[in-house]
Amino acid sequence: MGESVKDLLLVLLLFLLSLWYLSHSATRLDRLHHRVETSWANLDGLLQRRAAVALEIARSTISDPATSLILTAAAHQAREANVQDRSMAESGLSGALGLLLHDEISSTAFIEKDLMRELSELTDKIRVAIALHVDAVNRTQSVRKKFVFRVFRLAGRAPLPVTYEFEADVL
């Protein structure tokens, strides 16, 4: 009788440890998904701000009328793009801003220099935000590929996070 009680307690202990491990793993995965969502929200906010600065630059005297037209169209497209078209729109805005930055900017007013400095700072912040987002997505995807997470469906109905093509572009 003493032997069966020990066996029962051992099985119960293993069961409780397994439940704790699964609960801990699910919580970890939930935190990773939250990290992906927050990194995307941060990146999206920076991209929206970049489009707003691009519109301000298009209205200023920095660019010629043709570049202003291209920049305005690209900025509006980037601001209003849905998820499926976001990569193409952001890449288009990066290209339009690249056209502007490659042109010689002669004597510009203080406001225009301020806009260009803000654009440069935003571009640096976007690079960091992209790196953080890609890292969060890669970590979440690698955890979700593990056997335990797939078998016990610890991700629930959460979609698999993805990166977008524009994140690989050099801004």
Overall description:
This protein has a single domain, classed as de novo design (two linked rop proteins), CATH 1.20.1440. Helix 1 packs antiparallel against helix 2 and helix 1 (2-59) runs antiparallel to helix 4. The protein has helices at 2-59, 65-80, 86-102, 110-144, 147-151. The chain contains five helices and no strands. It has 171 residues and is mostly helical.
Relevant terms:
mainly alpha, 171 residues, de novo design (two linked rop proteins), 77% helix, rod-shaped
Give, in order, the helices and strands. HHHHH
Shape: rod-shaped
CATH topology type: de novo design (two linked rop proteins)
Class from helix and strand fractions: mainly alpha
Estimated share of beta-strand residues = under 5%
Q: What's the CATH architecture name?
A: Up-down Bundle
Q: How many β-strand stretches?
A: 0
Report how far apart the termini are: 72 Å
CATH class placement: Mainly Alpha
Q: Which runs of at least 5 residues are low in confidence (pLDDT < 50)?
A: none
Number of domains: 1
What is the helix content?
over 70%
Number of helices: 5
Biggest beta sheet summary: none
Radius of gyration: 25 Å
The residue-averaged pLDDT reads 90
